[in-house]
């Protein structure tokens, strides 16, 4: 694990969840809070978190008492070690397992159909698009260097049975690419929430739930706003930071 001096100690839920993460490397963002808060998790779900980073999404699910099994995969050894530390620090070793491995190799390590729900914030910037971050951790997390949304769905095709679900946060401008990737691997989008920075802004992100072997019907949920007209977090966004299950959104 990284030296203590290179880490920060952050918290969620008024200090009830403690998270160490790199001071200069890849740090979890609002995307992780949105993914953990907007994803529907059933009590009996076996959950796989691809690209778990410091373990934030898996830890939030476990802290809230969601799911019966949670596994986080992280390719970068340093981050995987940090995620294990965070799991132990929060007393969740019996609920969350962290594996350091490439999710493109899951078929060699996990039986087919061994999970019910897969969640991910996949890298969303094409290699040729935009400036590459000079920090290796950040570059691998944001650019399609060691994974892409297509490879997320390829992993999900192996890990999930028919009827299994994939939940993702992804840029709204690449929604078509996400849908095409899902359909190429036998998944159909079933629920979609457009995420706006504020009521006057265009949709910036999407939260999409896809189902393996699902039909063509798509439920479009009410839009989700992060900030209100005054620049403060909306009530719905604030709920995602509080120690309770996310609200039902229709």
* DSSP summary, beta strand count: 11
Write the H/E string, N to C.
EEHEHEHEEHHEHEEEEH
- Helical stretch count? 7
- Domains (count): 1
Could you tell me the CATH topology label: Rossmann fold
Architecture blueprint of SSEs:
Elements: E1 7-12, E2 17-22, H1 30-38, E3 46-50, H2 56-63, E4 69-74, H3 77-89, E5 96-100, E6 117-120, H4 136-142, H5 149-159, E7 165-171, H6 175-184, E8 187-196, E9 203-212, E10 219-220, E11 224-225, H7 235-241
Distinctive features:
Rossmann fold; two-stranded antiparallel ribbon; alpha/beta; 250 residues; 7 helices; globular; disordered N terminus; 9-stranded mixed β-sheet
Task: Report on this structure.
Helix content is 26%, strand content 25%. The strands form 2 sheets. Strands 3, 4, 5, 6, 7, 8, 9, 10 and 11 form a 9-stranded mixed beta sheet that branches. It has 250 residues and is α/β, with parallel strands linked by helices. The protein has a single domain (4-241), classed as Rossmann fold. It has helices at 30-38, 56-63, 77-89, 136-142, 149-159, 175-184, 235-241, and strands at 7-12, 17-22, 46-50, 69-74, 96-100, 117-120, 165-171, 187-196, 203-212, 219-220, 224-225.
């Amino acid at each position: 694990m990284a030296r203590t001096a290179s880490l920060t100690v952050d918290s969620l839920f008024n200090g009830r969840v403690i998270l160490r993460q790199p001071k200069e490397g890849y740090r979890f963002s609002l995307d992780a809070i949105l993914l953990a808060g907007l994803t529907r998790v059933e009590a009996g779900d076996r959950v796989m978190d691809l690209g778990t980073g410091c373990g934030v999404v898996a830890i939030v699910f476990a802290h809230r008492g969601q799911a019966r099994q949670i596994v986080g995969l992280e390719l970068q050894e340093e981050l995987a070690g940090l995620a294990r530390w965070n799991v132990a620090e929060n007393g969740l070793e019996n609920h969350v397992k962290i594996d350091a491995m490439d999710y493109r190799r899951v078929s060699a390590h996990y039986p087919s159909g061994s999970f019910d729900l897969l969640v991910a914030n996949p890298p969303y910037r094409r290699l040729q698009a935009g400036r590459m971050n000079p920090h290796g951790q950040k570059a691998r997390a944001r650019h399609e260097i060691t994974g892409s949304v297509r490879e997320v769905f390829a992993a999900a095709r192996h890990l999930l049975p028919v009827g299994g679900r994939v939940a993702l946060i992804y840029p709204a401008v690449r929604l078509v690419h996400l849908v095409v990737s899902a359909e190429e691997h036998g998944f159909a989008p079933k629920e979609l929430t457009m995420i706006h920075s504020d009521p006057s802004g265009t949709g910036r992100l999407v939260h999409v739930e896809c189902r393996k072997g699902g039909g063509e019907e798509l439920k479009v949920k009410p839009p989700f706003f992060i900030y209100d007209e005054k620049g403060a977090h909306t009530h719905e966004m604030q709920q995602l930071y509080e120690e309770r299950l996310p609200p039902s959104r229709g």
